[in-house]
Amino acid sequence: MGCAFAQTDGTIAGEVRDATQAPIALAKIVVQSQDRGTSVEAKSGDNGEYIILGLQPGEYIVYAEFAGFQKAKSKVHVTTDGRAKLDFVLVPNESKQTVEVNADPPALDTESGALTTTFTEREMQIFPLQGRGSLELALLVPGVMGEAGSDEAGIFQDVPSAGAGLSVGGGRVGSTAILADGAGSNSVGIGRATVTFSTDTIQEFQVITSTFSAKYGVSGGGVINSVSKSGTNQLRGSAYWYHRNPSVNARQFNRPFPNNNRRQEFGLTIGGPVYIPKLYNGRRKTFFFASLEPKRYFDQIDIYSRFPTAAERTGDFRNSYVAPGQRRPMLYQQYRCVPAPQNCNQLTQLNRPNATAEYPLFGAGDPDPTKRGLVIPAYMIDPLAKKLLADVPLPNMPFDPQGRNYFGTRGVDGTDGRWNAKVDHHFSSRNRLSGRYSGVPLFSDRYRVAKGNVFMSYPSDISDTKQLMITDTHNFSPTILNDLRAIYTFGDYSRRPPGEMATTNYTKDVFGLPNVTNFGYPFFQTGFGNYGLDPGAGLGTYREHQYVDCPMPAAATTCGRPRKPIPATTTHWAAPADYSSLRF
What we know:
- 4% of the residues lie in helices and 40% in strands.
- By secondary structure, it is mainly beta.
- It has 4 domains: 10-90, Immunoglobulin-like (Sandwich), CATH 2.60.40.10; 115-228, TonB-dependent receptor, plug domain (Ferric Hydroxamate Uptake Protein, Chain A, domain 1); 236-304 and 407-581, no CATH class; 315-380, no CATH class.
- The strands form 8 sheets. Strands 16, 17, 20, 23, 24, 25, 26, 27, 30 and 31 form a 10-stranded antiparallel β-sheet that branches. Strands 9-14-15-12-13 form a 5-stranded mixed β-sheet.
């Protein structure tokens, strides 16, 4: 299993010179975070050049000073994995000349050949995004195509696959490198994002579409990197509530009823310095950020089906639906009762004398001509079919022109309880420790015909992911940075039987059929459709464990091999051992 991660921290570099453009060696450079108040110091070299590594994305004030010269000051924005160039010109103390340093980013990035688009926190707040998913931002970038996907399960049997449908820079779908704080966050399976953030918990969102550094390593087309928020020196937070109600939804022109989409989305974020009264004051040193974003969603559509009528359940097909212009089909007897008629202990197949001979009509000698070939004796209906019919609903409307007599609903009922917690501690201007623990637990149940109905159902999806990340960033010198990251990612992308079907053994306890799984509902193929859970629905338990632990010096910021690779383990639900059909 290959994996990689790259630095999300930025860099400030430049030159310090005097008014004659002569380089100033050993000038003191101080970089101070506007949000956190923390600072990093460095000295310019013999040629006047300086570099500051390992800076978190954000706004900074940079000071340059040297004995005998006026102190220079400038502001600069550091982006994710970006390199801001900031040059200073110092003037003597007695000079009345003032030098303005312009720190605006250049129109072209001359420090890197990568084609990069970075969305700031402000931009993410003003863009309308469906479901508040940050991956939707990637579709605004030229060179990105496809669908951002969703970590929510839909009405149909689509697999939750956030980010797996994106193609960046012409790469194959599912081959995009998706990073969270620089850590690889692609699932082993279909390239989906294991950890997804809402826009309220991201500081910057970056898309690299071409000519990116080899340190990213595992991408087949492009790189998407999300940098989660950190706490600041001020206590800040946000709260939101979003509600969508079916009563105000518009009706589509081809639907008799409005859309039934109902959503409840809540969000709470808070961040600031760690402060424990009388024990600890973490201003300018220790910061926290936490978020909780529960979601409940429900969606359904109307469907029309054909179910047996009350007469058909007793074997009487004289009034069954027949399309206009067609003759009512006749029923031929292919089974007989053993040991004798009307004493049906067992149904055995009736053999024809030759391949061209027809089976006899049911009730061929019945004195009532309306029953000949149209009515099956009640004693010949299989007891297994009677048990199944007990779960099948009766028609609830007259036959429509397509021969359907039941109006029902097909839908999905889902929950999302995502959360995120992050702590940053600055031991000194040279050493920073950061830890993040994120969870995205999503569960969904699907149904067709009606909620709670077991005999006709679709599989339920699980998308439960967690990621623990610890980063130790140490500046040994202005040119040597060590970034040690330990990451554990867990993903559960299982597909299970819905509702009670996952725990109740309908196959054995209700239908008396052998079943080794101790749960489940048999699959029946009938003339009215298929009942039960289709064995081809892809049921299975799929869990991933990804471990990565490696140091990253500034000269090699990629860990391309996991220290302890753990193969993803896969087990499967056993399909029902027996499949039965309605027999008449």
